[in-house]
C-alpha cells in the first residue's frame, strides 16, 4: 500500500483543474463559428456547403432582406463554411463552451438588403454581393457600366433579353463528328 501511495505522489497531477483554470486548446481545434456580418456578402456559399443545415439563407420580400442564420444546435464544426467563404466572413474559433440557458441564444442572424432586377423589379440577390462584384471589376480595370447592367438584371430577364452573350459560345464544333471515315 505504501508503494502505491509513493507512486501516486511521485507521478504528480494527471488531471486538469478545468473549471478553475482555462483548458488549453490545440491551435487546430474547431470550435464555435465566429461570424462577421460586415465582411459577409450574403452569397450563400456557406449555406450551400453546410452538411447539417446549421446555416440557412431565407429571402423576405416584404421586408426587402435576405436573412443569414446560424443555429449552433445543429452545427457539427466541420469547417466547410470557413473553406468556401470568399471573403473570410466566417471562421471557426477555439471556443468550445457553448452552453446557454435558452434555445434562442443558439441562433445568430444577419439581414442583408436585396437587389432588385432593373427590368422586372423582382428580388434576386443581395445588394452587397452585387456591390462586391462591381468593386472587384473596378479593381481589375474592367468597364463597370457594361457589367453593372448585367449584374443588376435577374437571370430570367437576362435570358429574355439575350444578355448572356450565348452567340460567343460555339459548342457546335465540339458536337460534330466525322461521318465519312
UniProtKB/TrEMBL annotation:
Q: Which Pfam families match?
A: Fer4_7
Give the record's GO CC terms. Answer: membrane
Please give the Gene Ontology molecular function terms for this protein: 4 iron, 4 sulfur cluster binding; lyase activity; metal ion binding; NADH dehydrogenase activity
Q: Enumerate the UniProt keywords alphabetically.
A: 4Fe-4S, Iron, Iron-sulfur, Lyase, Metal-binding, Repeat
Q: Which GO terms describe its biological process?
A: aerobic respiration
Q: In its keyword annotation, does this UniProt entry include Kinase? A: no
Q: Using the record for this protein, list the coiled-coil segments as residue ranges, or answer none.
A: none
Q: Where is the 4Fe-4S ferredoxin-type domain?
A: 31-60, 66-95
Name of the protein in its database record: Hydrogenase-4 component H/formate hydrogenlyase subunit 6
Q: Give the lineage.
A: Bacteria, Pseudomonadati, Pseudomonadota, Gammaproteobacteria, Enterobacterales
